Amino acid sequence: MALAILSVVVFILARATGDPLHLILPMSATPEDYAEARRYLGLDRPYVEQYLSFVGRAVTGDLGMSLRARRPVSELIRQRLPNSLSLAIFAMGVSLAVAFPLGVLAAVKKGTALDRTAQVIAVLGQSLPTFWVAIVLVEFVAGRLQWLPAGGNEGFASYILPGFTLGWFVVAGMMRLLRSAMLEVLDSEYVKLARVKGVGESQVVWVHALKNALIPVITFAGIYFAILVTTAIVVETVFAWPGLGRLAYEGISSRDFPVIQAVVLTTAVIVAVVNLAVDCLYAVIDPRIRYAR
Amino acid sequence: MRRSCRTVLVSLLTLLCAGICAGSAVAQGKPDLTVALSSFSTETLDPVLGGHLVKYYLSMMFDYLVGTTLDGQPSKDGGIATRWENSADYKRWTFYLRKGVKFHNGDDLTSEDVKFSIMRAIGPRSTTGYAGPLRTLIQTIETPAPDRVVIVTKDPTLIIPTYLSRSLSTEGMVLPKKYIEQVGDDGFARKPVGSGPYRFVEQVTGSHIKLTAVDNHWRIGTPKYKTMIFKLVPEETTRLALLRRGDVDITEVSRERVKELEKESFPVHFRREESILTLWWILGPDGWVAPMKDKRVREAMNLAIDRAEVAQSIFAGKADPAAIPLGLSWSFKEIGLKVTPEMYYPYDPVRAKKLLAEAGVGGGFPLEVFAYQLPGLPEGKAMAEAVSGYWEKIGIKVKLVPVDYPAFRKSWVDRKTPGSVGYFNIANRDWIGTYALLEKQAYTPAKANDTVNDPEVDGMIAQVMRQTDKEKINTLMRNIYARIRSEHSGMPLVYLHSAYAAGKKLGKWNPSSVMYDLFLDELASGK
Questions:
Q1: What is the pTM of this model?
Q2: Residue B265 burial by CB count (10 A; 0-12/13-18/19+): exposed, middle or buried?
């Protein structure tokens, strides 16, 4: 139902903001050229007919032809989605690797220099604009120091700068969330009991407390993973990364309706799948969370 | 816990080191020529789906029926046609084709391919720049021999060779008939076959197009570079970082960053006057609307702008003031037009105010100015703000409307906001291209695109279309420009010089003055 409503809304909005032929056809095109192109591309048909045709084809996996590139949109999505997924996985991996120890340690060492450092990192991570971080990294790390590739997807090294830029923001949010969740859990009765029973501090923190502090963090990670996959437009643009975010941007800026519709539908599916995965993880982490039988 | 911390730090450092090692390997020397561009336009590999911008990469994969010189003149050496001639009535154009040319799949290139290509360029699938005029003009195409093709037009015309040449758009690219019939249009667009010095290897949309050299080609001999890669890199900082690392050999560079690169000893090549930045008023359904209907208001708005200051401050001195609306300067020499000093608008706000008062709008009037970026014009919004500032100084109440170009274009052609101002960096071109532009933007019957609305100009443009005497055409073209200038039918701002930075080891290269073509032939030539 949500997908159906979404498809109608996107279908209408995409068409309300401009004519793709103004970009596809050259400035010198005549009204006859416009009419001919409109007829050839099927844009002269009534909106209802265009919509029904789109839905009819979409349910069979045919997302139509890009008006701009004249290629099947499913082919474009197939080319771009793996790039976005792999970058998002890399960025999320980096974020988890940094946020987990820092978040936990900041909670355990509350009020110490380590905690304050973690908070500074969190503030910087959430306040520095992604485009700025990206440009600075490209300019200095890639351009001046020449340590890492500046753009494109040409092997492992090219993941580091865009992955770090994307992950930087997530690290900040995740670390803050983990810290506050850990503080709450560390103050709970069962943790105190574990300590009284002589369980080692390390086990208390990394096993008993962390597991119970994970639920909000996993929710956050799930939401951000979907965002990283589908809307990393700025990072993909700066690092010339051929991903889904840039495909969306190109689609929007050229009023390529089939591409816009397909990207929105793909995004919706990714969000749904990630949410389902997060729900499943809840059940794994906390056995009390189960579907009622 | 300390151990955990150490583990994380060590992991991150290992990751960074691994990346640096891998990254360094990428930066080492290579036998490729890599060109980074900010836009691939439609990113298509099919010439009929392109418009103009796709020429940057397609011109190395395909041959044109008519070649061009570095300064944009039809050439008998650079195209498939080694000579051509017209009938006395200028309605039959016979092209004699180069013998022994083969497509990359081994098929011979014949007159049938030429006919097929032109018919396809003017067919329903085509979105190319000049399909419309050719569609109107061409009556039939004959192929009396494999090396001879005759284009028969409905009316006498001089434009056929230039319209099918490399100096304009993609209509003149010769495509393989048999192959396209065999694999279909979509198959061809995915895996194109041409006859140019480089053949297609792969395309990753949003990333790059890779070509590889043929062994030997009549255009350039044995190509100097084995591989040619066109990379799509929208962000300038990234393009420059790639250049510094040696990952690309040629890249577009904005005018404001030229000095920085020159300081670092990167050669910067200019395509001088690559485009004219011109502003215009959107017409109403019946033409000019008040107060722009009054020629004094149009003149006042022109006089209010300090073009030299705009060229210096907005375009970092890499631009020169322009004098004539829609004045494509690469055509001026051909049509014998000399731009005299008095044709340039002086910066004269006092006289501008006086003219507004005489026109009855001394107290100013509301004006909407659209502000948007364009490919090749990152300064678009800053320029719109600067020009608006000049107009505010003479009392005009300007409202800046930030939009993207498609939204402006819709307002322009739908004529929904008559009197408001828009702009474009129109690519410079030869006289035929200039005529094509005038026919679209200064000719009332062109309707949607018209910006001039002047019956006298319409009459002269219509005469050019039917005229076959080049001297008379030149006179008409000069008169059109004189009229547009004297009626102030637009606001010419500056000629933009576009910069392309090259790697330090790149050889001699002249980026030419051919529209939307970096003319990489010379660079790749092994002759």
A1: 0.84
A2: exposed
